[in-house]
């Protein structure tokens, strides 16, 4: 499965470099056409790199949050992380109107981390919670933050300035204003390093302590990684829903819930998913372009409905690949909220 996803990603990445309003011809590139090379290096290549970082980062962020919160419906969207990052950007626009993208990113990092920590702190104090209640709490908390953000934006006439971060799109990604998304790379590497620790913490506080794992440190480290990844993407691209929710669940249906065994496939499938949705958005009403948030929302909703129907019909069963050992205990991607 990993090899299959890698091949698909390479093919789609190559094709995406030549999809757009301006046609880029491979012979022209080899002939040294300056205009073609400018489009390729200033627009197409930065866009591809931003798409890959977004897909990988948001998928890994969702995987980490689902594991640490022991709930398959938790993601940067349902965990108030995206709403908190948008609130930070608004604060930067209000108090530092001339700030650069890096200045806005600092505000987004701080508020995203704080909002995610508050959300997890709150759900930990709910004694009786089921698989649906936790994301509902996150959605309500995110709506409260979003309401405050909209109120301040209307009051100080910042609605138009904030609109670029409310809907995700790659149309403005060009060389010089997207590089902050590269922060996703070291954060994802850090997630790979601590994958086993996240898996153990997902088993519960007592289980972690019995194995000598510092529960609170690993918990807040994982949440901080997920929040910083999300904030990096929101600052550059804007809000993109469903990626952190759908991708880990789909991969878990085939590979199980162990992070070490699914993190690579989650990253690859996330990149493939976002890249495919972006290419659809560029091709549907060409030469115009649909925002990636709209395409991901439509495709993600359909996939989510399929996941729900599969969960209702097959329960805890996972999809078995041909030749896979039947003794492996993978569980369904929409289950696992009560694995403790």
How would you describe what is shown here?
The chain is an all-alpha fold and 340 residues long. The protein has a single domain (2-314), classed as ABC transporter involved in vitamin B12 uptake, BtuC (Orthogonal Bundle). The protein contains 14 helices and no strands. It has helices spanning 2-16, 26-30, 34-69, 81-95, 101-124, 133-155, 159-162, 184-193, 195-201, 205-210, 215-236, 243-255, 259-284, 292-314. α3 (34-69) packs across α12 (243-255), α3 crosses α13 (259-284) and α4 (81-95) packs across α11. The longest helix has 36 residues, at 34-69. It is globular and about 65 Å long. Residues 323-340 have low confidence and may be disordered.
Q: Please give the domain count.
A: 1
The SS-based structural class is mainly alpha
Measured by DSSP, the beta-strand proportion falls in under 5%
- Indicate the overall shape: globular
Mean pLDDT: 83
Strand elements, count: 0
Keywords:
340 residues; mainly alpha; ABC transporter involved in vitamin B12 uptake, BtuC; 14 helices; 67% helix
Give a short overview.
By secondary structure, the protein is an all-alpha fold. It has helices spanning 2-16, 26-30, 34-69, 81-95, 101-124, 133-155, 159-162, 184-193, 195-201, 205-210, 215-236, 243-255, 259-284, 292-314. The protein starts with a helix and ends in a 26-residue tail after the last helix.
């Amino acid at each position: 499965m990993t090899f299959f996803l890698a091949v698909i990603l390479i093919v789609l990445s190559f094709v995406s470099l030549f999809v757009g309003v301006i046609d880029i011809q491979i012979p022209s590139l080899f002939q040294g056409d300056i205009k073609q090379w400018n489009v390729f290096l200033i627009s197409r290549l930065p866009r591809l790199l931003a798409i890959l970082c977004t897909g990988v980062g948001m998928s890994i962020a969702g995987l980490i949050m689902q594991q640490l919160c022991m709930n398959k419906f938790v993601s940067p969207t349902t965990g108030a992380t995206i709403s908190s990052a948008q609130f930070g950007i608004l604060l930067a626009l209000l108090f530092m109107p001339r700030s650069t993208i890096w200045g806005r990113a600092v505000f987004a990092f701080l508020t995203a981390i704080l909002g995610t920590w508050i959300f997890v702190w709150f759900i930990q104090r709910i004694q009786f919670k089921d698989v649906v209640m936790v994301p509902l709490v996150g959605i309500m908390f995110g709506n409260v933050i979003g309401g405050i953000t909209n109120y301040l934006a209307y009051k100080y006439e910042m609605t138009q300035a904030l609109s670029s971060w409310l809907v995700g799109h790659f149309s403005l990604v060009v060389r010089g204003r997207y590089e902050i998304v590269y922060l996703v790379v070291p954060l994802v590497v850090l997630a790979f390093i601590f994958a086993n620790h996240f898996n153990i913490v997902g088993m519960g506080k007592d289980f972690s302590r019995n194995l000598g794992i510092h529960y609170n440190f690993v918990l807040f480290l994982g949440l901080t990684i997920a929040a910083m990844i999300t904030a990096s993407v929101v600052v550059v691209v804007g809000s993109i829903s469903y990626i952190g929710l759908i991708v880990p669940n789909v991969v878990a249906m085939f590979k199980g819930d162990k992070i070490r065994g699914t993190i690579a496939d989650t990253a690859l499938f996330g990149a493939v998913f976002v890249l495919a949705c972006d290419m659809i958005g560029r091709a549907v009403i060409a030469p115009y372009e649909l925002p990636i948030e709209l395409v991901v929302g439509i495709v993600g909703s359909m996939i989510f409905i399929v996941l729900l129907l599969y969960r209702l019909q097959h329960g805890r069963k996972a999809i078995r690949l041909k030749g896979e050992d039947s003794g492996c205990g993978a569980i369904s991607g929409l289950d696992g909220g009560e694995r403790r």
